[in-house]
Amino acid sequence: MRRSLVPLTKPRSLARRAFTLLALPVLLVMAAGFVLLDSIVRAGATRELSEHLAHTEAARRADRMASEAQLRQLLAVLADSAGLKAGMLLYRELEQAGTLEDPAQRAQAAATLQEQLADLSKQLSFDQFVLADEKGVVLAALPPVARFDAAAEILENQGAYFGMVTVPVLREAELVGYVSAGAKLDFSRASQRMLLKGNRVLASAIPGLTLPETTAASGGISAFETAGRRYVGHSSPRGEYTVVELAEVDEAIAPLLTTLRTALVSMATVSFLVCLVLSFAGTNALSRPLREFSELLAKASPAGVLPSELPSDGGVTEMRQFKRSFQEAARAVSRSRDELEQAYIHFMEAMAEALDARDAYTAGHSRRVSDYSVAIAQALALPADQVERLRIGAMLHDIGKIGIPDSVLLKHDRLTAEEFAVIREHPVIGRRILERIGRFQPFLAAVELHHENHDGTGYPHRLRGEEIPLEARIVHVADAYDAMTSNRPYRERMPEEKVRRILTECAGTQFDPHIVDAFLGLPGEVLLGISKDLEKLSHAIRSAPGPAAVAQPSRDGVPVAGTRV
Amino acid sequence: MIGCCFWVAALAAEGASVPPAARVAGSVSITRPLTKRRIAVETYSPRGAALKVAPTEPADLMAAELDSVVIYLETPAATSGGATSAGARVLTQKNRQFGERLLVVMAGETVSFPNEDPIFHNVFSLSRTKSFDLGYYPRGQARSVTFAKPGAVEVFCHLHPHMAATVLVLPAGSVFTRPRSDGSFVLDGLPAGEVEIVAWHRAAGFFRKKVRVPASNVEFVLPLREP
Question: Of the residues B149, B172, B195, which one is the last residue of a structural domain?
């Protein structure tokens, strides 16, 4: 028969498998969730920061415009000065007169306006003041500037940038000139601010910032990056310049992320531990009934007995069903065993019956020999299983006589040598009959060797002394006793004392002395009780018509030497 | 801004007591606004209401421009022609305004500045032509200034910055006129021959043109560009 494929994988315990199945997915999900949450939070924080920045910028812009409006109104009030107008118109007068190039005249006009500007600057704490005529030509400036654009919000002067507020100087509805005041814009490291013109960076708090393509005039939120640090910037256009307010993303969200990470890690740890514990408990609850059961079976199998007491099923439905089915199977097996035992017993009884049916004179003999053997065994205080073995072996000891022909077995006269040899086959025949049944192995000794003599003169193997198994020795004694105390076709039974004397004389040669002692030590009523059956039987036999009994001692194990009764 | 440009046909010489040979007639046209108007600067009012911008209707614009023009002939020694001064000139201060935006006087004339407002006023000028400061004086008082040199004098009031006026001092004996609302002008009492007519614009300055008297079609295109 072809062998089935041996599975290549080692079997793993249910507990480990269940634990893996439970814990691993949870761990994976948690890890994935952690990563996902981290990136979500980061994106969300960035977005929040951008929005916050936008709001801050919008608020700042509103503030700035409000303050600008106030400043404008203030400047307008200050600029509505007759002296300023007159001073500005001086220049026009010079221009119209064509004497603007005259340094003396020019200086005079300049001085007038410069003084007025100085007065103005005393009243306002600004970094840059400009007085210009209606064409935008600078008439006076503090500190001096080269160029001036009345419409520009940002003025560049010697590398510094000023956010300017410009108001017109009016004579009635006529524009006479401009007054402009402004504060310096801070683009230093502390300001987190950047100045762009078009797409060119003019000043920046963070050097080396790379611009995305859609910056500048859009006036919205853009992302910047430099040297691995990310920023979010809000662009607000101011004329042809753009001022970008920056906020560093990582720095801003770092505390949040730290808090979040800590929370997540601790949560993850707790969840992991809880998951471990629960998985453990869960798998234990699942696998414990099975494990206990399998351990119990592992212990029981060497003994070849199915356990009757099963461990608790742990409340699991499948386990309960399994337990029930197993108990059913165990019971069935047990029943089969019992039935088998019964069958054996019945078989043995049938064998004995067959033997009884074969030879009427041997009827009851096997039973009595068995009873005598048990009595001897009990007297020798042998263990119960040996006693049982002996009982059955003794019951079957003469089964081989089935193979002996009637002409030999029931012969009244003296046996010939050949017939004698035939008789002497019956132990071996008996053994041959029984040895096929494995169950009867323990009985073979009593069957085959119950004619061995203590001094080695027996048959079939001429064993001596301790070589002869104890059961065979016991059956030998019992068999001889019963043969001598029962009627045979060739002789009458011997009296009790004579039998005892014979036994004693032959102890040491034919029989084991200890066994003889034990047998002779049995109380009389025991022997009597056993042999009572003999009386009934003998009576039955005598009343039945049959050949006269001629003693043939060697036929049935009665000592050959000396006595012919 | 509206570039006003309209040409008016020369007026025919009027029949008058003045001999036609002494007349120059023509028109003034202004090709672009010479007076810069207030630029509407974007402002943000906290209450959400936008600040008003000065109205710029074309008609007002042109009228205001022409109103700032004086056309005259500089004659050092002129006969009694054109408008002559009759006694002291007066520039009042009433309703927190000067009486006139533009006052033309001859050199040597005296202008009185009476205060007819219930409040104090001040009259001053930084102009090189004549700088003066009459100080602060109440209603009923009048102070005077004599303008000896010709030129434009911008006059202001320290107390009221929106009060402004220009005094154009012409050389003594000059003949001058102001263009009408359509831009035409007539200068009478001019000596015959080649003369130089000057058109002065308050914001743009002096524009000179050589003209042969009599002429009837003199066109001053301001700002005057050299051809």
Answer: B172
